[in-house]
Specification:
By secondary structure, this protein is an alpha/beta fold. Helices cover 41% and strands 13% of the residues. The strands form three sheets. Strands 7-6-8-9-11-10-15 form a seven-stranded mixed beta sheet, sandwiched between helices.
């Protein structure tokens, strides 16, 4: 009788005999091959991970324990073992099951994957949230050899080793990227490293050496160096050991019993453990074994008759299983004992930090810039001391206030605790603050992992550095629709640091992302309210604010604002200015300049670039001569483009909008913005009040428009509302 159709979930695996489990592996391969022959899919990697998947699900208790599949194209066996056998024939078909893990399909799918290199950061986020809650679930991540060498994976490994997170990392090495030495001595050494005898004798030996007068420390260093050389000779995993991650391997990847044995042992070791598993891509299907590249991806070569799909005899040979498991079986008595790794590793580097910015004197602000972002002169410091606190200061203050009552809030930054104001959060909540060093991609993916576990992470990055993590915002945060607050500091012009640091590109890149709320305040008080608004909803939220000082608005109790609802600040009959962010105040001043010319100008504070307040904008645009949009961002694809799209849609159905002109005012997209003071750059780009008014006048001249006559009492009503 077939076993696979009878399984309700991975817990059923623990009641099967060895013979039944071997038969099950054969059934899984047959199902994958026959299905992929019709639907296409990632065949080779999934065939190679069958025993590995069975072993993980027998050792762990999913969904209480979490298994993260990096990329996810090797997770077909996982899908079959977690209740999706009856629908597996719909793989990658419209309305069917996905070719990657999807949370909407099963509670056993932890994360909606698809891109290589994200798994370690997601797993680190899940484990970090677990440790903050003091819960007991075990976290494992399966990562391929090719994905392991991605920049994001290396960022995550550095953080995992530095923070010594309890985590099982399974390196599924199918020789498509790295080809380590495989041998009985390497397997024996991995087994030995888990034994209590090794750990205790190593520690005792180190203590004896260290206690020797005069020569103790030099002798200890020499001993450890020699020991590392021996370990490195026996194993290919010294890099991981140096990072502070216990390395075990290389383990035969198709010996299920051996895998179970080593996984159980590894889960008992304190701190992170990497188990290096060697698998064969395309295992059990000879064409895929011979052509591992061709049979990797979704577009496969023509597949021969299924008669050729029978597993190669060696896969299920009892003699082979005995041979490959012999080294581990002989050392059974030495396994497992928790404790430290075989070698005192080289101390992993602390997260790299961007140089701490100078703190403006006298006002308690978060710093205006780092060594990356420019060091203020003495004159600038003196001028800054007279200004109101900046937006970063108000953001951090409100975040700290909220964190006092919501323990789910975790603050994350990438080497900029002072520049982002999060040093204040760190001082009050050190156990809920994470600095990953200069690793923006990992910061965002880590935050996604924590959000998956129920935390409310805030990742604060400068706009220019957030550019590095665009894929993580798309793939990890927005695709999974996770409530991560992305604090986009230094949005807009930042001044003297020039072309590489202006925060002018983030808004257009974010506006295209489904499910992402994008907001920016008109002043510091509204910033506080938008911080609260972000935590009142359960979707990704990007909050943009500049490095500028505030306007000195008296502080009031922050309130939750309705998402997607703007604010009418001033009414007018000729022109309406619609602004996004603190540039709204310059729009107000421009409206006054235009009013002196006889124009009646309205003003809208949009608050949200996505979703737009469609009704407010359309109501105010109806019958106007001109709509002018304001943003301190590149104009191509930005806030103004969103208003243009809205008006164009309305023009198709309502003649009242067909004569309304539109002028998008922002940073031109043709050139990078060079260095200079922010005020100088705004003047040069005509984004100061005078320049905004001048651009609106130019548009009105081109339209050959003139101010309309004021109906009786209209001026008085407009002035009353403005006051």
């Amino acid at each position: 009788m077939a076993i696979l159709p009878t399984l309700q979930g991975p817990s059923d695996l623990r009641g099967l005999s060895d013979q039944q489990l071997n038969s099950l592996a054969a059934e899984i391969r047959e199902c994958i091959i026959s299905t992929v022959a019709r639907t296409g899919g990632h065949l080779g990697s999934s065939l190679g991970a069958v025993e590995l998947t069975i072993a993980l699900h027998r050792v762990l208790e999913s969904p209480r324990d979490k298994v993260v599949w990096d990329t996810g194209h090797q997770a077909y066996a996982h899908k079959l073992l977690t209740g999706r056998y009856s629908r597996f024939g719909t793989l990658r078909q419209l309305g069917g099951i996905s070719g990657f893990p999807r949370r909407s399909e099963s509670g056993h799918d932890v994360f909606d994957g698809g891109h290589a290199g994200t798994g370690l950061s997601i797993a680190q986020g899940l484990a970090t949230a677990r440790d903050m809650r003091h819960s007991m679930e075990r976290i494992a991540v399966v990562v391929g050899d090719a994905a392991l060498i991605s920049g994001l994976s290396l960022e995550a490994l550095n953080d995992i080793g530095h923070r010594q997170t309890q985590l099982l990392i399974v390196l599924n090495d199918n020789a498509m990227s790295i080809s380590p030495t495989v041998g009985a001595f390497s397997q024996y050494f991995s087994t030995l490293k888990l034994s209590s005898a090794w750990k205790q004798s190593k520690t005792a030996y180190d203590r004896i050496l260290e206690s020797l007068p005069l020569v103790g420390q030099p002798a200890l260093k020499l001993s450890r160096r020699i020991r590392r050389m021996v370990v490195n000779f026996a194993q290919p995993g010294q890099l991981f050991e140096d990072l502070g991650i216990t390395y075990l391997g290389v383990i035969p990847g198709h010996n299920r019993r051996g895998l179970e044995h080593i996984f159980r042992a590894a889960l008992d070791v304190p701190g992170p453990v990497l188990v290096h598993v060697r698998t064969q891509k395309g295992r059990g299907y000879r064409p895929a074994e011979r052509d591992q590249i061709g049979f990797h991806g979704a577009a496969l070569p023509p597949m021969p008759e299924l008669a050729n799909s029978q597993p190669t005899p060696e896969v299920y040979s009892t003699a082979h299983a005995a041979r490959t498991g012999a080294a581990l079986a002989r050392k059974e008595s030495a396994l497992p004992q928790p404790g430290q790794a075989d070698e005192a590793p080289i101390e992993p580097a602390a997260p790299m930090q961007r140089a701490a910015p100078g703190e403006p004197a006298g006002n308690g602000n978060a710093a205006a810039g780092s060594a990356d972002m420019g060091t203020p002169s003495d004159a600038a410091r003196a001028a800054t001391a007279k200004r109101p606190p900046n937006y970063t200061h108000h953001f951090a203050s409100e975040l700290v206030k909220l964190a006092r009552t919501d323990r789910r809030i975790v603050a994350v930054t990438a080497g900029m605790p002072t520049g982002t104001g999060l040093h204040r959060f760190q001082a009050e909540f050190p156990d809920r603050f994470i600095d990953v060093g200069i690793a923006e991609q990992h910061a965002v993916a880590l935050s996604a992992g924590m959000a998956l576990a129920g935390e409310r992470p805030v990742v604060a990055l400068y706009s220019t550095f957030l550019q590095r993590a665009f894929d993580q915002v798309v793939h990890d945060v927005c695709q999974n629709d996770l409530p991560v607050l992305i604090a986009v500091d230094r949005s807009g012009l930042v001044g003297e640091d020039g072309t590489s640091h202006q925060g002018m590109f983030t808004l257009p890149t974010q506006r295209q992302l489904p499910g992402l709320v994008i907001a920016s305040p008109k002043d510091e008080q509204e910033l506080r309210s938008l911080v609260r608004t972000a935590f009142s909803q359960d979707h990704p939220f990007a909050l943009h604010y500049p490095r500028d000082p505030g306007f000195g608005v008296p502080e009031q109790e922050a309130r939750v604002l309705p998402v997607g609802i703007g604010e009418m600040l001033r009414e007018g009959r000729d022109v309406v200015i619609v602004g996004f962010g603190p540039i709204v105040e310059r729009g107000r001043q421009a409206a006054e300049l235009l009013a002196a010319d006889g124009w009646s100008v309205g003003l809208v504070n949009a608050r949200f670039a996505k979703p737009l307040d469609r009704q407010l904008i359309l109501d105010q645009a109806r019958g106007k001569t001109l709509v002018a949009t304001l943003e301190e961002s590149v104009v191509t694809g930005g806030f103004g483009t969103g208003v243009l799209e809205l008006l164009e849609e309305a023009r198709l159905v309502d003649p009242a909008y067909r004569e309304v002109g539109l002028r998008i005012i922002g940073i031109p997209a043709e050139h990078f913005v060079d260095h200079g003071s922010v005020d100088q750059l705004r003047h040069l780009l005509r984004l100061d009040p005078e320049g905004i008014a001048e651009q609106i006048r130019e548009a009105l001249v081109r339209m050959k428009a003139s101010p309309r006559r004021d109906p009786a009492g209209a001026n008085e009503r407009t002035k009353a509302r403005a006051s």
